[in-house]
Amino acid sequence: MRTASDLVSVVDEAQPTLVDWSKADRTRLLERATTILSATPRPFIRWAGSKQRLLSQLVEHLPATWRTYYEPFAGAASMYFLLQPSNAHLNDYCQPLVEMYDTVRREPDAVLAGLSSMDVLDKDFYYEVRKSVPEDPIRRASRFIYLNRAAWNGLYRVNARGEFNVPYGKPRSGNILDEINFFAAANLLSKDGLTLTHRDFEDAVVGAGDGDLVFFDPPYASSKRRESFVDYNETLFTWEDQRRLAACAERLRRSGAKVIVTNAYNSAIRELYPTFTEHALLRRSSLASDVSLRGSVAESVFVT
């Protein structure tokens, strides 16, 4: 039986075409990055830590040229949908997320049909869906998207048994998807040049090397004591994982890959990337339950 770790599409073994951004290309890319709510394709799910609202700040740190694109912590895949690369490796450690993407790229019509009877404004219905996990992958994909829309802040969190346990989020409208964008995103995900995997981030970049672009957007740790939100999966992204990530990024840098790493803005993280250039990013926090407490938060981007 195929597992989520084997969710890969056939990729041409020939050397990937070199992407070379002209001034006009970068201008168009920036325009797309600054119209995050209308650009197509764009993410069709919400994800804690998504870089969708930081894309306009990240564009200036993209290299002028690169071959294959790697995104080991896909989440909502904001950068992937922005760049729309011909050759890409998209990965995430969250197996249900990867399975959903794989199902959407194969059966978008069926997934959308499964959503047609789901009401995000019905609180009781939400909890019924939350406690029931279908065996059919299409129904699971519809359930994943529904829960993402109806849960508090689009959060993905599971308990020690791997059960989704985010409370109801009281959506402002009954809309689940922008259908035009959903099909555009499914079409991009179905391209032959995309490899989709569920693996540890180090395994996900084994093939990356000279001239490739690797974008790391890991769960953040605000200190060595892991004070920030990192409960994306049953296994926490620990401080040791942060150290392992930094070592992986350094190996890729030495191999000639172009590497971009986003992370928390603090000295402990900064010390992990001595050979990288750090720039500050500014975003608005959305995780506080009290809207009045959602202020501006600084993040770091480390580039080679």
Automatic annotation (TrEMBL):
InterPro entries per UniProt: Ade_MeTrfase_dom_2 (IPR023095), DNA_methylase_N6_adenine_CS (IPR002052), M_m6A_EcoRV (IPR012263), MeTrfase_D12 (IPR012327), SAM-dependent_MTases_sf (IPR029063)
Top-level taxon of the source organism: Bacteria
SUPFAM superfamilies: S-adenosyl-L-methionine-dependent methyltransferases
EC category: transferase
Key words of the record: Methyltransferase, S-adenosyl-L-methionine, Transferase
Any single biological process term in GO: methylation
EC number in record: 2.1.1.72
Family note: Belongs to the N(4)/N(6)-methyltransferase family.
Record protein name field: Site-specific DNA-methyltransferase (adenine-specific)
